[in-house]
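Job type: complex structure
Entries:
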Amino acid sequence: MSFYLTDAEWAAIQLSLQVASLAIAIALPPAVLLGYALARWKFPGYTLVNALVHLPIVLPPVVTGYVLLVLFGRQGMLGSFFADVFGIVFAFRWTGAALAAGIMAFPMIIRPVKLSFELSDGQLEEAAHSLGTSRLKTFLLITLPLALPGILSGAILGFAKAMGEFGATITFVSNIPGETRTLSLALYTEMQSLSGDAGAIRLTVIAIVVSICALVFSEVISRRLSRKLGGQHD
Amino acid sequence: MIDVDISSRLGDFSLSAKFEVNSGITAIFGKSGAGKSSLIRMIAGLSAPDNGRIALGERVVFDRAASINVPIQQRGVGMVFQDSRLFPHMNVERNLLYSQWAAGRKSAVGLAEIAELLGISHLLKRRPHGLSGGEKQRVAIGRALLSNPQLLVLDEPLASLDASRKAEILPYLLKLKNEFGIPMLYVSHSLGEIEQLADTLVLLDAGSVVAHGPIAQMLSNLELPQLASGPDAGSLLFATLNTYDEQWQITEFGLEGQVLQLPGQLGTVGQDARIRIKAKDVALARKAPEEASVRNVLSVVIEGITETSGPYAEVDCRVGEQHLRARLTRHSVHELQLVAGQQVFALIKSVALDQ
């Protein structure tokens, strides 16, 4: 058995990195804003929004993928809008894989983000307001930097999740080599072929390493977070 | 001058406050849950009352009828919270100067001067989490001062500190008062702190202002049991340090033309001092005692006698313009035939210096 990756496997890994990067870029800003809103505000429909955010965890991924196909397919309401207005096509493209991965990763990102906004209860912001900074400036100078470890931790977990996304991706954008065949899809393909065992094992090892690294990084960062914020209340 | 006339409902609790106080230190005193914090949050602009008006000096910062509600960023109120609330991701210097680099405020006093005054010059490069509770509070006070406030609001700034840390901070607050003359609202449920600091006292009970006025007058007002009852109740007297006797190590204070002596060297000549005398430590005599160990004897005039339901009577005496309370048994009052208007001698067993 060869330990070296084939070109196709390399391509799948590179594609996964590319897809996961775009997925995080799409998902992180709304996750930060929504995480802040859910942590600090009580508004009508709170429970519904909270449920929607976490829906991808419980929903069968194939359902998420199918919904995306209906909405963002060529004929879909949003799909035709993005194609006509921005010239962005999602269906059967790597951008679609990123969209699917971003949505599947969203609950993973928002959880630590929300938690870190909950850790401080707005008291430091009150102090900042009394010292003259506006709400926006206070958010940028105080709230956001203090939530940074949580945001980073969410981004790392989300990245790992996005790299390995399978169900929603294959349903929405299919399994096209070089376009949508990410790591998990390549692994699935190798498992289907008669001679694919060695490749499947190589990709499995890579998937495990990526996941463990993400969990360890995220844990280290959240520990730093609690230490940092722990010092402010005594 | 701070002019407050507000009312508000906060769930089951209703707050109504009407008072005006002049500059200097105004203490807002009351038990926990009396509404002290709610009141100052409204004055500072952290929340808005349902009704009423708040003016700081000439400036109306809140007026429901005129739809005025100046946001906290523009009220010019410096806040010091019980839990200091320093920004943990910035060092002490960045914290102190926050209002200047982040909000563009200009301060008449400089960082160096404030840091020197508060004894925090050596901490500037440190992060807040490494500081002691007392150091954190001093930084918080400095940070509020450097935001160039017209009013400094301190919400129980010493409540979370132990006794020795409290003693460490109080002198700094007195220095602020004397050197900057910035008006302060000082919220506390500790009468001891208030006696040392405040010029005016606003008494809050169950959401409403029961009384407000000059500190000494409030403390000796028997109609305010929150202040004037209890075993340690007494009088606050304002005196001046006259001399210090090196041989006997006695400091002599002048009080309305009379003299009080306290053991030890207690400051510098000419300095103003607050002297606290517990009512139970004052005895009255019709004649000046001779050959007695009690050194402090003041000639006083009885203003009034209030008999309680128990064995005691509270005797309100006047020393010049100031008041001194004595707690005697009703039996002694009867035997000595004490009546209002009578000139007697107050024998003071123990005197505590508050400042």
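Summary: DSSP finds eleven helices and 21 strands in chain B. Residues 163-180 of chain B form the longest helix (18 residues).
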